[in-house]
């Protein structure tokens, strides 16, 4: 064969991909309502661009601030900028609860779910409403401190201000990218190149991943640019990037896989092949092992290839651990219904972020758990705003083996509903961060759930007497290893004494922003002497922490790995040197806004103790 022919074949393949790319760009909005149009095809100037700041913050997964304040809360994202273009740590910005990898290295860290797709890396989110629905042309994010956390921007078809609820809620990804390390903490305006979509929106969602950051990221405002009328696309087509084609293939596979999840779990007809290749010669267990590396959408697609693989893909052993959080935008009652027969042996289930805006009903959730809840050991329901008292009742009745329950930021659950949790005496981990749990229900839970090892009560503002709660923990929860009391407003030295005496296995304790604790009462000294196993201690924003407390920690808590004393005025460089010399495993020391610890001291400590990340924040 002439050498010309292979070259012609290559050229024809490239020409084919170019035509396919152009056809997609020009007609995808009409061909498939779930696909977006690339924004690098310029729009003809047929209407005027609108510029809007966020009108309201509708939902978020976490924030650094208090529920009764504006400082460091997500609500600061509404309206015009408060800080930008200034750089630094400012209370008027929006700050998420965590940063870095420190939270993954402490005793309360949870094991990750397998089969999480590599393209999903979001850790937190915030949803913003704007006044007017527009076809987005640009999104500007004003980042004022440690930028680089935003990894995904989405737009929703639902209008949060419409009187008529939509029959279908669609989310489209405008932009996404893996986490990147940004050089320097200075402020910037982040304006990624977004896709055009075929519906107007006034609901934008930012998803973030702060794992690569050296400190908390701070956001000041979000600006949405858009036009009221759908742009007409010009015939001009930009140069084709082969990587873009690959990305579009990935997104198309994702959409196809999740459509399969909702529509094609039950296969009516399968292709009849004379043989299954060599698969039918492999041991059943080996095929199961191979398939265990596939994501859920990939399993759905593979199930349609032949009867043998359909049998394997539908085997309940493939669904022992199942995380649906990466697919939160597409999970609904239908998805759960199709999954029921495959999840009869499920032990770990992650439904975090799913089901909002009517996607999952109380009846749909209840039906699923009645079939699949008997073997559940771990249930993640973070930000599940569809949850109500009926749901908690079903959980406690249908999940007798439950050991871990995450209700973080489920702020729509009524206070009385938490009483049901007391029926699950096998609980070892309970996360109630930003919930409306009340004192009576919590006392009942502590009384009956004596196996608790990890408990999070951060930002639970409806608890009236934390001393009473701490006393009950000390009496009943002897196995407690980690306790989060972040921003608990009324615990005193009496509660700390009861806690330290009764829960001596504690390895992690967060008392950040607890203003009623005073070092002069001896409460921190008592902690250091009674809790020698402490690995993480946060005393954030407690101005009274002093050298005596640090020296007691150095003498008694030699396993300490993380210490946050942000904001104290009473700690000297000498006591910190003693701590660093004694605690050989220390990896994080936050001395931000500690008035006696200036940058010169930090540089000296960093030079002498290079294995410790010593954080000194600033404000300009």
From TrEMBL:
InterPro entries: F-box-like_dom_sf, F-box_dom, FBXL15_LRR, Leu-rich_rpt_Cys-con_subtyp, LRR_dom_sf. Keywords: Leucine-rich repeat, Ubl conjugation pathway. PROSITE patterns: FBOX (PS50181). Signal peptide: none annotated. Pfam families: DUF7885, F-box-like. One of its GO terms (cellular component) is SCF ubiquitin ligase complex. Residues 276-331 form the F-box domain. The keyword Cell cycle does not apply. This is FBXL4 protein.
